Amino acid sequence: MKCSVSNSNPCSPQHFNGPSAPSPSLNFKPCSSLQYSPWSGLQAWRESPLNKNRIWGPNGPQSLVVDNCDSSIGSASSLAELGALVLSTSDPLTKSKLSHLAYSRWRRENLPLGSVSDPPSRLLGLSNPNCFDGLHSLAVEVSPKEIPAPKNSGLPLNAYMLHNLAHVELNAIDLAWDTVVRFSPFSEILGEGFFADFAHVADDESRHFGWCSQRLSELGFKYGDMPAHNLLWRECEKSSDNVAARLAVIPLVQEARGLDAGPRLVQKLVGFGDLRTSNIVARIADEEVAHVAVGVFWFVSVCQKMGRAPCSTFKDLLNEYNVELKGPFNYSARDKAGLPRDWYDTSSSKMQDKSDKQDKNEKLSLVYDRLASIISMESENSSLNRPPR
Predict the structure, then answer these.
(1) Cα angle at 278 between 158 and 324, to 5 degrees?
(2) Can you give the pLDDT at residue 16?
(3) 332-343 pLDDT tens trace
(4) What are the sequence ranges of the domains in the chain?
(5) Distances (CA, A) of 234 to 147, 162, 210
(6) What CATH number has the domain spanning 43-344?
(7) DSSP assignment, residue 70?
């Protein structure tokens, strides 16, 4: 079964029941008796004020007012155009800063969503070195197999792990804005909430990258001091023609892996003796729950509009796009984000199937017992009513 929404039109109306299709409900059942339960904090996250905690102070996040050093942000007239500006920016710190300024301006001025028909590609190199010290550049991207081992990276273990996380967060900025910009022509079908959520995600990710970059600087390093993998953007490009695939591959697989890896990374940093970095990582991992929850919510919504079951559609999409699910899974964090276990864990599906089969057998056994009882009673009545010989 192919699950492409459309190669030429990822949100084509013929693949939906219409823009008025119902939003995900608590009673929606994916492919088993397990129910989809949205993250309890999703609405509070959506309604939260603009997060200005752009730096990591002695005791945690601290507020910092970000000044605009790029006049181009003021020339954009819609959310889609703002996102395109961020995607066109190459310097990591400038990108992080512009991401926050873009989201801030959209919220403050209530700009329209707008539409960009040809999303820009990511650029490499410096875009505006006058805004910063001119020393920051994108890391050289290589395949995951080419990433150097910690002992060969030239970085101590804590900086090595932090650099890897910084790369994930920087890519996540582009991933979220690309989702906003690429699918902006289909805002009437997807709804304004879709774009508001992913612009919010982009703002969160820009704050996370800022914390990582700050801490790397405190350790005497910077982003770009070692190569980084190209997995995240490769997955983004693969799903560029299909909104359902984008939601499945990025929030529900790649970002969900962050929920799995976060606690393990925190433990390693504590073991290394770097409590400050471990606190940053723990906070980022906790905030990533919202991003997975957003992905689940909109994936279920899109599936409902297409008239498809989310669980089987998710699995079919991963098979179609050759995306591998890897454990171990952080079940508690995934459960909190509302990601049903039978979507990604085969053992959960098998247990559910076994439970359903056992329940069915118990019901059949009960029916058989009742039939046997009825037959026995009929036999007794028949013998009592039989005339004596």
Answers:
(1) 80
(2) 39
(3) 999 999 999 999
(4) 43-344, 350-389
(5) 16, 21, 23
(6) 1.20.1260.10
(7) -
